[in-house]
Amino acid sequence: MKIGSRTFNFGSMPAIMAIMNTTPDSFYSGSRLSATEDAIEQALKLESSGADIIDIGGESTRPGSLPVSIEEELKRVIPVVEMVCKKVRIPVSIDTNKGEVAERGINAGAALVNDVSALTADKSMADIVKNYSVPVVLMHMKGTPDNMQNAPSYHDPVAEITTWLLGRAAFAEKKGIAAEKIILDPGIGFGKRLEDNLKLIRGFSAAVNGRYPVLIGHSRKRFIGEITGQDKPENRLYGSLGAAVMSAYYGAAILRVHDPLETKEAVMTAKRIYDTL
After folding, report:
1. Catalytic site residue 256?
2. How many domains does the chain fold into?
3. Which residue in 104, 168, 199, 221 is the catalytic one?
4. Has 193 been annotated as catalytic?
5. Does the global pTM surpass 0.90?
């Protein structure tokens, strides 16, 4: 898959997507920017730490969060995308479910759209992705960020979410988006219980079975705190690294994380050990 000027083969070593938030209320304080001017320094740090992609978002989607206006999201995110794209050599992703924000982000230099609604929130998004010929991440979320953790339930989370996302991919293809430009994300933590998240990390890539690359966004999320007893996201690095290693083992093509250096080194080491068996 070509993202910007780079070609990703998505082999046994997953690509690392680093998280950069221009929001004041993202669940992990370490991913927030306190000022637009900090963006370049942070982006260069992420790039030098081994990130392959930087994902920039201007609207928090943490559990319980409320949407922001399109004007506020544009104000937060577009200047950052524009500045970062001028300074880094790796591709930049725009994390939004709003068509206008995506289009403005692409015009500012973004080479990938990461849509947590899988093209359901804004009817213009599919046409924008098609017209600009950029790859798109389609993510599953049960409900909306403000209510998604209100007693979610599944009979078989892997089967149900795989079926839904393959349906969204089929919709995208019917709208003219090439199959080779589609990435699927099961939405770890987005309307999921602990066991749902674990089953998805273990089984979603196998269920997709190579039809599309899979992105896993597990980093520092609540389910890791449930396992480790760490209530604060700031204390969930080690659990996140464990989840990253297992996500890679079970076939993730992209890992969306707050800690690219630590994640890459953990996965590289685990892979080297596995390859010598």
Report:
1. yes
2. 1
3. 221
4. no
5. yes
